[in-house]
Amino acid sequence: MWLPCGCTSKYVASSFARRTLASYLHVSGRSRCNVAAFMPEAAGLEGVSGRAALRELSVSNSESFWAAVARHRLCWSTPFHTVQDCDLSRGKIKWFEGGKLNVSVNCLDRHVHTCPERVALIWERDERGSEMKYTYGELLEMTCRLGNLLRRHGVKRGDCVTIYMPTCPLAVASMLACARIGAAHNVVFAGFSADALAERIRDAQSSTVITVNQGVRGGKVTELKKTVDTAMQSCPTVKQVFVAMRTDNPVTMTARDIAMEEYVFSYHDGDVFGCVADIGWITGHSYVVYGPLANGATTVLFESTPIYPDPGRYWDMVERLKINQFYGAPTAIRLLLKYGDQWVNKYDRSTLKTLGSVGEPINTEAWEWYHRVVGDGRCPVVDTWWQTETGGICIAPRPSDPDAEIVPGMAMRPFFGINPVLMDTEGEVLTSNNTSGALCMAQPWPGMARTIHNNHQRFIDTYFQPYPGYFFTGDGAYRSEEGYYQITGRLDDVINVSGHRIGTAEIEDVVNQCPAVAESAVVGYTHSIKGQGVYAFVVLKKGIDVQEADLSRQLNGMVSEKIAKYASPDFIQFAKRLPKTRSGKIMRRVLRKVVESDLEGLGDLSTLDDPAAVQEIIQGHEKLL
Ligand code: 6R9
Which parts of the sequence belong to the AMP-binding enzyme C-terminal domain (predicted)? Predict the structure, then answer.
């Protein structure tokens, strides 16, 4: 009996044989391998030409015909010794005895060798106009990952895996992954009921099921995972159910269920997770220590700085340690952007899969550079919003989702269990989209803070008193027409110029778009006429030589044009650097005090990364006045 290498699935084997024949019959002869062209020398059938003759030969000398087809259109790890040994009178069917091949290798690897960028799948999704393409390279990677996942969970050659999924790339990869590791697959139509599914699982004696949380068909959501849960009541053989996410809606997971992705960074076993945060920052706690270790990940401890011994340090490290996920702060990205692309391009960053940003709004220019230069335009950038108080990521894009649209500079979507709301100044929930307000959380979640050590009253006053019944984050956010969130900064950083409320981050974003500017910080100050005026601190990129007055005019023009005249800075102070915390956040509180000339009120400076920066800022301010 013909069995592909490592594969005991009759379904896989026979369907591939059918495909092979089918594709042969439809070969055009120009772009694909032409059977007529290879047949004669391959099978000693010189002189055969034309379809009729070929068809005649395929019947009269079927053994030679099929031997030629099999040898020329498939890759065998062990060649067959006997083409066929069949006897219909006894129901004995044996083809290609002694031969071994792997169907997934034939479907994927050999094409990836020659044309990895060729599109293998075009997924026409239920949502019209949102089709997605997957190359052979991507499909192979997805397949290998799934194969490894199944193996690690004990699926072995000869097992039968039940796949209960809608028609989607992950379902294809699941089939190929089974074939790859020698497991049979039992694909059950996703429209079947729990009983029909259970019967097929029992028939196949599957111990493993792969499904998705929900299906989407004809605009309707179907509860596939719930159907599996019901089927499980009469399927005692099933030990594990892998659950992928087709939609955003979480489902109840039982001890038997295994989530198929980690969600924000798409971390998979074997990856090297490189969060370059200091462990003194919450980001280090959650994403250098506890998160990675609790998930059995390999985590990088970065002791150095992004520019020591030179500005290529991060990317040199990515190359040497083969880092797959890189997670850092916008401040470092802006710093490195100043030094130019050459420091990035020097190093091999092909292991990188996901780039993360945390700590501050990431301005458009930094986002684009991170994506285009660091990630070579192929790695999703996840702008993750969260706080010490939230314990872990609350709002972030999820590239592993099928609906993985990512908008530069937007934290995008709430994570599982997170229910954000925007409040107006009266404390009313804003229900519409395309609106801005104070970001609050309407529901608790396990990772959130429980108290402030030794000061529970302060905890209540800070987080729960401003909007009773809600957790108040202190940040402002904008919700787009599509329902995506964009963090606009701390609400303390909103200034009111002549009655116009504007987030300082918005002005900074425009200023940072000037090619000469590395980064900026905007604060408000008391203005006798406008209520508040706009004061911008600007750091230039390395090697920029411009007249400050000219550049100031240019920046004012940009802000007037892109936001409004009232937002245009009254003062622009050029500085060598900005005062920052060790975690890279600009200390706007300090800048505000400097601008108000309230040096007595500078407050606690112990978290400053480099106290000398404050002295420089004070001197620069005095010169400007
Ligand atoms: C993880 C962390 C929290 C504050 C938070 C917000 C700002 C964090 C952000 C962001 C815009 C992002 N913040 N991530 N702003 N976009 N992706 O930074 O914790 O040090 O407690 O700071 O940082 O203002 O409220 P923490």
Answer: 506-585
Q: Which atom of ligand 1 is nearest to the CA of 389?
A: 21
pLDDT tens track for 185-239: 998 988 889 999 999 999 999 999 999 999 998 889 999 999 999 999 999 999 9
Is-above-0.80 flag for pTM?
A: no
The token pair that represents 466 in the structure block: 């401003």
- At 26, the pLDDT band (50, 70, 90 cuts) reads very low
Between the CA of residue 178 and those of 8, 159, 290, 448, what are the distances in Å?
10, 9, 33, 40
Helix (H/G/I), strand (E/B), else coil: 595: helix
Residue 465, token pair as written in the block: 């008193």
Long-range contacts of 142-145 (CB under 8 A, 24+ apart): 142/169, 142/170, 142/173, 143/104, 143/108, 143/173, 143/176, 143/177, 143/180, 144/177, 144/180, 145/177, 145/268
Cβ-based neighbour number of residue 455 at 10 Å: 11
Cα→Cα distances 593→62, 526, 581, Å: 90, 11, 16
Q: How far apart are CA 474 and CA 489, in angstroms?
A: 9
The half-sphere exposure of 23 on its side-chain side, counting CA atoms within 13 A, is 15
How many Å lie between the centroid of ligand 1 and the Cα of residue 443? 19
Closest C-alpha residue for ligand 1 atom 23: 359
Q: How far is it, in rounded angstroms, from Cα 524 to Cα 448? A: 32
Give the list of residues 6+ apart from residue 404 with CB closer than 8 angstroms, or none.
Answer: 380, 397, 398
Burial letters 362-394, b for 16+ CB under 10 A, else e = bbebbbbbbbebbbeeebbbbbbbbeebbbbbb
- C-alpha 156/C-alpha 178 separation (Å) is 9
* Nearest CA among 219, 265, 497, 269 for reference residue 358: 265
Task: For residues 548 and 576, give the distance between their C-alpha atoms in angstroms, rounded to a whole number.
Answer: 13
Does the interface ipTM go beyond 0.95? yes
DSSP string, 149-190: HHHHTT--TT-EEEEE--SSHHHHHHHHHHHHHT-EEEE--T
538 Cα: distance to centroid of ligand 1 (angstroms): 22
Burial category of 312 from C-beta neighbours within 10 Å (exposed 0-12, middle 13-18, buried 19 and up): buried
> Cα of 387 to ligand 1 centre, how many Å?
5
Residues contacting ligand 1 via CB (< 6 Å)? 282-283, 358-361, 383-388, 411, 473-475, 487, 490, 583
Task: Report pLDDT digits (tens) over 31-62.
Answer: 233 333 344 444 445 566 777 788 888 888 88
E strand or H helix at 434, and its extent? Answer: none
Q: Residue 232: count other Cβ atoms within 10 Å of its Cβ.
A: 19
